[in-house]
Amino acid sequence: MPFSQRVFCGELTPGDAGRSVQLAGWVDAFRDHGGLLFIHLRDRSGIIQVVFSPEIASAGVCRRAAGLRAEYCIAVTGEIRKRLEGTENPGIETGEIEVMASGLTVLSESDTLPFVLSDKAMTAGAPSARREAVSEELRLEYRYLDLRRAPMRDNLIARHRIFQCVRRFLDSRGFIEIETPILTMSTPEGARDYLVPSRVHPGNFYALPQSPQLFKQLLMIGGMERYFQLARCFRDEDLRPNRQPEFTQLDLEASFVDEEFLYGLIEELTVEMFAVGGIELPRPFPRMTYEEAMETTGSDRPDLRFGLRFVDVTDVFPGTGYAIFRRIIDAGGSIKGINVRGQSGRLSKNVLQNEYAKEVVPSFGGRGMTWMRAEGGRLDSNIVQFFKAEELDALRRKFEVADGDVLILIADASPRAVTSVLGQLRLHLAERLGLIPEGVFSPVWITEFPLFEATGDGGVTSSHHPFTAPDRTDFDPKNVEELLSLRSRAYDLVMNGEELGGGSIRISDRDLQRKIFAALGLDDRETREKFGFFLRAFDFGAPPHGGLALGMDRTVSMILGTPSIREVIAFPKNRSAACPMTGAPAQVKREQLAELGLLASAGTEPMRGTRERENLVDRLSWVARIGVDADERPAVEEALAWAEEMAAASARHAGMEEPVHTVAPVANRMRPGDEARRSELAETGKLLESAPEVKEGYFKVAAILE
Ligand code: ASP
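^ thats the input. predicted complex w/ aspartic acid below
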């Protein structure tokens, strides 16, 4: 039967009984019943049982079948039949049927696997063939095998479906998919660029895009009106567990639109994407200003699946008798707290005082914590006696306290420190007390971000990127205080405490864009050098426009509920931004560097600093950052010569023998108690024959100085 006749294992049903089929795939598992051989045949669509019986298959087929092993790639012909009653396997979709094989072709064999792939039991009721815990590093090294596992296959199929949903939806709204360059100029998004040296322009570099920001704006100036792209972006940032150096964004931009258009569009799209994963999102998404988010949750990506919102109680304590609070208020600080409702049973005095106040809060950078437990209609704590009755009453009112509640207050001379500590505490308490409901999704738009942040050296930097429109245009670009008071027309979409994406209405006026660059401290020359081509485009009738980008790896991972974004990427990098399968990033040959102009010429003229490294001693001192004086040189040279000799010797042996840790074969030797005695060889002196030096019947070794 030719492959064109092939059908898919997972698509067969009891209705196909009696049908002759050709199947192709991999041996998921096999079981030999002496004469009868059963295999689970797996392709992308699922698993079906195939039976090799000498009554149906020829002796040759049965012999070949007996040689099958896990992950052999095979083609099978046979007839579908209903399984005998009592032999059905509800563990697989096709568990009511099986294929009585008449033909078998081994398409290719498989080595022994580095880890078990199958997780389906062959008989009903048997424990599933559980995979042993496999390290992620090993899974990534053999990713092509890992992809054969059902969870990975399902994740990639779901990712594809979500991407298709994006394409269909945006197409229906008049957006067109356009690719922008990968080899390009730097696009500022706040990370470092990955640089690509140019061979034909020695000494010059492309940058991989941190985002298509500049190009999508140029597409708007180019009259494309509505653009989107499932764009690969590259950011050389510090490592974090859920971050990839390259990632996929849904990038989009539209002309003649405002924030409301984008909120509506993205909400509808997000609802559709989550629906692919069977998740129903409530609409409209709530909105929260940046300030409100910071003031009530201590975060600009608040997790709104649970309460624990902050209440400001600074005004409860003016002229308080509690000296610590008084000092903090006098210094311009603030006091805020959260009411952990009904949790006094789990937050005992001991836990609050010895764990939270003494350990948890200091680990979040807090200097102290005040706690009170509501019991019998009163607030109780270790310091409650320092507060006036009206202060305690005001707290009860502000926090709407009921018995069983626990109040946690953080006070600090820096209001920023208060929100930061309380923000971390909020998440810690929610996790620990199990206050985060499962299966709940809480989207929120965060709006009105500050346009700039202070840099610490008296300047400002963009909170998003420098193309974001400010809320007003009449500012003085030299007045840092005024700059820091500007709000932006930017918005972030946050879900369950994670930023799914963000964007802004852009600056479309060239003078305003120049003013922003000036505020960022770029002079005319720098602006021209970096963004000349971009600014020039604004001289030709730029339309008002805005857009946004959604992190698709993160979004898909959230929809599918995977523990990391690596589970929804076919070939991700590991936590150290490396690929255990290909070995990237890897060193390159000197000739390649030379060809790229990274050595002045083909190896004869080394790069700056390389020549010094040519001489071994100089190289050592260069690497170790130590100076080697003339009189120390001979000793260092001798040590290096010896090391080189050793290295050469081991290189000669490399490949000939397995590396060993000891020169003698390792074995456990037990000294049998009383029978211990000196070797006869010692008696005769033979034992010491080959010793370099002997003293009184013993080996003499060099003194060891501690
Ligand atoms: N380019 C921005 C980013 O990658 C998104 C946007 O402003 O559209 O974060």
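Residues 49 and 98 are 5 Å apart (CA to CA).
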